[in-house]
Amino acid sequence: MVAVLLTGSCRGDHPTTNPPSVEPSVGSTPSAADQPCPPSLPSSARCGTVTVFENRDTRAGRTIDLAYVVLPATGAAQPDPVFVLAGGPGQAATQLLVLAKSSLAGVNQTRDLVFVDQRGTGASNGLRCDSDTLEGILQGPWDDANHEALVKCGQSLPADLAWYATPAAMDDLDDVRVALGYEQVNVWGGSYGTRAGLAYLRQHGEHVRSAVLWGVAPPGQPYLRTFGPQGQAALEALMADCATSEPCRALLPDGRATIDRIMARLEQAPARVAVTDPRDGSQTTIELTAGMFAGGLRLALYDASWSSPLPAMLAAADQGQFEPLMGLVTQVAVAISHQIHFGMFMAVTCAEDVPLLTEADVVAADRTFVGGEFLRSLQSSCAQWPTASLPADYLEPVQSDVPVLLMAGELDPVTPPSTSELAARTLSRSRVVPFPATGHGTSNASACEEQLVRSFIADPDPARLDVGCTKTLQRPGFLIPDGG
Fold first, then answer.
1. Closest by CA position to 174, among listed 141, 204, 210
2. First CA to last CA across the chain, in angstroms?
3. Which of 80, 133, 226, 475 is the S-S candidate for 230 at Cβ 3.0 to 4.6 Å?
4. Using CA atoms, how far apart are residues 200 and 183, in angstroms rounded to an integer?
5. pTM of the predicted protein model
6. Distance, CA of 93 to CA of 85 (rounded, Å)
7. What is the CATH number of the domain that holds 298?
8. DSSP letters along 231-269, please?
9. Burial class of 280 by CB neighbour count within 10 A (0 to 12, 13 to 18, 19+)
10. Are 388 and 351 in contact (CB under 8 A)?
11. 69 pairs with which residues across the strands?
12. How many angstroms from the chain centroid is the CA of residue 27?
């Protein structure tokens, strides 16, 4: 969901579609076409594409070659693989191959891992809308300065954007399942990938053995609604934890008032801050506005390890020294911008989230440090963005008796445990597991997460799952200058 840090001009990422004037050959039964794998992958990896029609209703015109990577089980394989669904929206699943060495390492011992680039991402007709400037990346798509470029991007992308919402993509995914010869699969999804996973469960649940979801964003519940209030809650938790540490409390004796003071100064006059552009290592100066500062602060709350130096960074910012904070924010924001296909982000968000926002949601965001202006700007951009028509039941809660494990960090600034609990109400064999002291990212909880995922997929009985490791989780210690 951190995709909203991006903005700008556009280009088609990977020309994987056939021109509309060419009559493609797509059989009634999906089939896979082998492709060479990159040399960086294990020799056992299998790569290829499955061709689908962009318009799944007419089954005519432009096609999309869905790119996939299969990492075979490293030991005796079970017949049901794990399909990995990426976040964003807009991240390509093949950018998550590192999971085979982290969260899914134990699972990969007995099951294939399958990574399919969702339509509009990666090599599956990736739809990019990138900023040429560092300030553009940091401003985010809600900034008025980027509205015209964003709309122009949508008009020039090589796609019918009305076909890039989640339901069509999950039918694509099932075509890949058929083409690869799997009868049943397990689903792993993170952030937006949880929404995709729940949609797949609704549309093709008969082929799902189990689902594991981290940071749940259910269909029909716009994650944008939580940005302000939940970001505020994560900040308040940070301040409360800081207040319990004498060295940290000495850094921020005014607590939350420090943020108000910084924001007020930036509202009066933006600061000029020298940062290193991670794209080429060059030194550049950005104009830091209050909105950009708020967006950067919210981003820093996504992972407990990122927020560990945050009190010291805020204390420095209070003295007019924004370089430490913006150094971290710039590194993270640029890394995200490389991964998120913002054209696909807009196609999903404008169809599935923005229409559900109410004026009360915007007002609630206005009451937080995040503010509601980004919601207003997204509403304005989406008004000029082609959107999909969703199935009649898409916004309804997903009902299923498939075993589902739903996990969420208690410090998550966007998908708190409450959204997992909401989704679990209609999942009869589910379990919600809150992770104390953990954000949207899991750097301080990776071992526990890997253990739970491995155990649940091996034995998908929610009642038997041992979640004891979550009781030992702690926020990483705050980094205090000079060892204070």
1. 204
2. 35
3. 226
4. 14
5. 0.93
6. 6
7. 3.40.50.1820
8. HHHHHHHHHHHHHTSHHHHHH-TTTTHHHHHHHHHHHHS
9. exposed
10. yes
11. 47, 115
12. 33
As for how many domains the chain has, the answer is: 1
What residues form DSSP beta bridges with 431?
A: 405
Cβ atoms of 127 and 13 closer than 8 Å: yes
Cα distances (Å, whole numbers) of residue 307 to 5, 313, 329, 373, 408: 17, 9, 11, 24, 17
Strand partners, 434: 408
Give the number of C-alpha atoms closer than 13 A to the C-alpha of residue 190, restricted to the C-beta side.
22
Note down the domain range covering 446: 1-484
Distance between CA atoms of residues 120 and 127, nearest Å: 5
Give tens-digit pLDDT for 292-325: 999 999 999 999 999 999 999 999 999 999 999 9
DSSP state of 213: E
In the block, residue with structure tokens 């976040």: 87
**The one-letter amino acid at 319:** Q
3-state secondary structure of 48: strand
Report pLDDT digits (tens) over 445-483: 999 999 999 999 999 999 999 999 999 999 999 999 975
User: Locate tokens 């028509």: which residue?
Assistant: 389
Count Cα neighbours of 359 within 13 Å in the Cβ-side half-sphere.
0
